[in-house]
């Protein structure tokens, strides 16, 4: 059954499409809503998100053996992020993780919840774990500041852009200057039946506002920046989602090989688009250097301060100095790039000097 948020009944609500279908794209004033969300006076309905729970005494050690992240000793209330990878190291699932002492909660994109629960159930073997897709019973509310009205709810605080223990930054921008610091992010878990009551009296922003702030923070999203070939290195996800010093898990060989000896074939880049056309190129538009196709536009938004902004995944070989052109059909959009993943990212073994931050221990 297709999900429809009860908050779509609010005045001015316009339903979103794509990854955010089922919740409001906006409530009539997208840029004003975005500003309010950015300063922390509004919250955003993310009730379409998938929620999977894992219970049982073996839950954390079991998830640790399956995933890219070290979660064996994850403390209650401490937020983390994990990836489940293919044997080739390609991203299959990306989950926000929070444990409450008895249950591990995995917050995922809408389409991930069912397949993730099914996959985890196949991996149970004889361990003391129980997995359930509880997406219909639980909703998510997003905010850039702690919300007093939601105090007492279980909350996931995005670790981005800080380099998590065992992680590694592929960005040339120092952590203290990373634009992600301007977007603290909190996701509250509330019972679906209490969603309307939980946000009563709070100004609402649409999913468009949340996505614009995400793009400006250089934060990749599964289903947007990813495809069937994506490895974590390409999106700077070793920063928050991978522990380089933990034990074996599926895909670890690729993680280690690319990080230590090779380079990711593609890199995530932030684009400041020419705003003179007063339109936005479509997601999926081809990115060019001259007449050469070098990548794909993965996310795009109108930012309330910066104007049209986007994320794209392009070939590693593209110089950081190049001006790019995004082609939406016959319509060209000139784009200035800001490097997210450094062109020489990877090949850490033997690196004499360099601007990439090593793993946090």
Structure explained in plain terms:
By secondary structure, the chain is of the alpha+beta class. β14 and β15 form a beta hairpin. It has helices at residues 30-39, 59-66, 113-122, 195-198, 207-216, 252-261, and strands at residues 14-15, 24-26, 43-45, 50-55, 80-85, 91-99, 103-108, 130-133, 138-143, 154-157, 186-191, 204-205, 266-273, 286-289, 292-303, 307-315, 323-328, 331-339. The chain contains 6 helices and 18 strands. Strands 13-16-15-14-17-18 form a 6-stranded antiparallel beta barrel. The protein has a 5-stranded mixed sheet with strand order 10-11-9-3-12. A 5-stranded antiparallel sheet has the order 5-6-7-4-8, covered by helices on one side. The longest helix has 10 residues, at 30-39. The radius of gyration is 20 Å and the shape is globular. The chain folds into 2 domains: 6-216, Probable tRNA modification gtpase trme, domain 1 (Gyrase A, domain 2, 2-Layer Sandwich), CATH 3.30.1360; 265-340, Beta Barrel (Elongation Factor Tu (Ef-tu), domain 3). Helices cover 14% and strands 29% of the residues.
